[in-house]
């Protein structure tokens, strides 16, 4: 965990996905990387995103957080 990670407030869903990831021995990005992903999605006004490698769903939750309400996320695992 980095100093920047201590400033990130993850949602209940993100915390749950991170715990699930530990249960299935899946690697997850840092809280700062997850927050940055949401910012990039929001900044680009992404309406449709494809994610390859769903894992525990942590990054998918972040992508959805950054998308508009009418956005579509397709994940392929």
- Let me know the number of strands: 2
Please bin the fraction of helical residues.
Answer: 40-55%
Cα-atom radius of gyration? 12 Å
Give the total of domains: 1
Could you tell me the mean pLDDT? Answer: 91
Which ranges are low-confidence, i.e. pLDDT below 50, for 5 or more consecutive residues? none
Shape verdict? globular
- Following the backbone from N to C, one meets helices and strands in this order, namely HHEHE
Q: Strand order across the biggest sheet?
A: 1-2
Helix-strand blueprint:
Blueprint: H1 12-23, H2 31-43, E1 48-52, H3 58-66, E2 72-76
Helix pairs in contact: 2-3
Characterise this structure:
The chain is α+β, with helices and mostly antiparallel strands and 77 residues long. The chain has one domain. 44% of the residues lie in helices and 13% in strands. It has three helices and two strands, in the order ααβαβ. The chain has helices at residues 12-23, 31-43, 58-66, and strands spanning 48-52, 72-76. It has a two-stranded parallel sheet. Strand 1, helix 3 (58-66) and strand 2 form a beta-alpha-beta unit. Helix 2 (31-43) packs parallel to helix 3. The longest helix has 13 residues, at 31-43. The chain is globular. The mean pLDDT is 91.
